[in-house]
Design a protein that fits this description.
By secondary structure, this protein is of the alpha+beta class. It has a single domain (27-132, 156-166), classed as Jelly Rolls (Sandwich), CATH 2.60.120. The protein has helices at residues 5-22, 28-41, 139-142, and strands at 46-56, 62-68, 74-79, 86-92, 100-106, 109-114, 120-129, 158-166. It has a five-stranded antiparallel β-sheet, covered by helices on one side. A three-stranded antiparallel β-sheet has the order 2-7-4, with no helix packed on it. β5 (100-106) and β6 form a beta hairpin. The protein is elongated and about 55 Å long. The termini are far apart.
């Protein structure tokens, strides 16, 4: 049995579109870090494709090692997507001296600016915090749907994402 061309085209299009849905993935922590970068991109900072992300216990510091170049100005932005969690980001040289010139922390995202005096390896510290208050998500955070058991309950780790830009 031979299928007509419109049916073959429809079948092929359906398979391709389903394949795209299966492989789609959004890292919400990285998305929030990129959202924090928006005003700085408008000031001329170029966001690099490099990014770091994962999960961490609340309050446990993470160190990301990265080479920075003298003469460039850098911003590092971090984000976490867990409702009620906060995040901060700092930058240090190899001797442990803070080199951040300015920083901000606004709930689920934060940033730090640096202007390295020499080309070297620096350490970006990310700390995500969460203090559980009450049980699970609030009614506003749950939305219109009834929660599924285990979904929206704090599992003991927070997602985090880090991006950077320079000019």
């Amino acid at each position: 049995m031979r299928l007509s061309v419109p049916i073959q085209t429809f079948a092929l299009g359906s398979v391709l579109s389903i394949g795209g849905l299966v492989y789609g993935f959004v890292n919400e922590a990285i998305s929030l870090a990129l959202e924090a970068a928006t005003p700085y991109v408008e000031q001329g900072f170029e966001v690099r494709e490099d990014n770091w992300s994962g999960e961490v216990e609340p309050g446990k510091p993470l160190l990301v090692r990265h080479q920075l170049f003298r003469g460039n100005e850098y911003w590092f932005w971090a984000g976490t997507s867990w409702p009620g969690a906060t995040i901060k980001v700092d930058i240090f040289d190899a001797q442990g001296n803070a080199i951040g010139l300015e920083s901000f922390a606004k709930g689920s995202f934060a940033g730090v600016r640096a202007l390295p005096q020499k080309t070297a390896t620096y350490f970006i510290r990310v700390v995500a915090e969460y203090e559980k208050k009450g049980e699970g998500l609030t009614a506003k955070e749950k939305g219109a749907n009834e929660p599924v058991e285990g979904v929206g309950e704090f599992s003991g780790s927070l997602d985090w994402g880090l991006v950077y830009g320079y000019r």
